[in-house]
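anyone seen this seq b4? input:
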Amino acid sequence: MAQTLTTGIGTAIYPKLIVPDTKFNADGLFSCRITVSEDDFKAFRAQLDPIIEKAYKATCTAQGKECKRASEPVKINADGDYEIYAKQAAKINVTPTADNPDGVVEFKIALYDAKVKPITNEPKIGSGTKLKMSVTPYTWFVPSQGFGYTLRLKAVQILELKEYETTGFTATDGFTTTGETFGDVLEQDEVQPSEAAPF
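predicted toks r here
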């Protein structure tokens, strides 16, 4: 059974937690990148590394050689910040069944407040929000890339909400375009519960 891990408190960077991003995936992708303290980074890696290393050794054994490693979603980034990145496809295709004839499974990210109560509205969760993530490590092997892993985002606990801002502009007569509105651009850049809370 996949193990669920919880990060320390981090600062969100362009979270996509309510409306999935469709820029590179037409089906949509929820994601959240956070920066955490060095201590919380090390504590999270202490939970994560044994899981990943066990899977890496099993993969090397199965391939009969030492496998190269792909880039990691848990790292010290170019700015020297301690970063954790998690994501979840908004929908996936599965084998159709009588209960699911379309063969499509849709996902949402469970949201909780500081008191671990489900958030049922849709706050404008923006960069700078303080939160924890509940994630499940998923390992994979692709010959061209080697061994790697992703963190599947399951839930988020929001401890300090920072909402993204709208422009404050209103429509008026004048120049128009057939492209995206100013609000659409902002929403794409900033917009970002079925189980017991893991927090």
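Residues 5-190 form a domain with the OB fold (Dihydrolipoamide Acetyltransferase, E2P) fold (CATH 2.40.50.140). Strands lie at 5-6, 10-21, 29-36, 74-76, 82-89, 91-93, 104-106, 110-112, 130-142, 146-160. kinda curious what u guys think
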